[in-house]
Amino acid sequence: MKATKKCPHCGHWTEWSQQPTDLCQHCGQVLEPYRVASEQARQRLSEQPVSSFMLIEIKPEDGPVMRFFKYIIRGGQLAFAALMAFMVWLVTALAG
Ligand SMILES: [Zn+2]
Fold first, then answer.
1. Does the predicted model carry a pTM greater than 0.85?
2. Distance CA 20, CA 33 (A)
3. How far is the CA of 30 from the centre of ligand 1 (A)?
4. CA 15–ligand 1 middle distance (angstroms)
């Protein structure tokens, strides 16, 4: 289904399919630049917890003390990932 939207750049009405990446038919600019930006921020946030999990690795040859400390650091990383997940949810909820 096609809808029309007033372009924020040139002020003309243009067809769009309600995608954040849709371009104006008249001036070729992004119709919702703020949504593209939040989309990119969301993507960055969702990638971060994965990379933070890669930071520490508990190896089988680690001693009990080393394991203990690594588990604590991992717990911190989990909390960080949970926080990031919450932020992603918040951004999604705010963006509607
Ligand atoms: Zn335009």
1. no
2. 8
3. 8
4. 11
1 pLDDT tier (thresholds 50, 70, 90) = low
- In this prediction, residue 54 carries a pLDDT of 58
Q: Distance from the CA of 2 to the center of ligand 1, in angstroms?
A: 17
List C-alpha distances in Å: 9 to 24, 33, 38: 9, 10, 19
C-alpha of residue 35 to centroid of ligand 1, in Å: 16
Distance of CA 26 to the CA centre of its chain: 30
Domain locations in the chain as residue ranges:
1-31, 34-96
Gap from CA of 8 to ligand 1 centroid (Å): 7
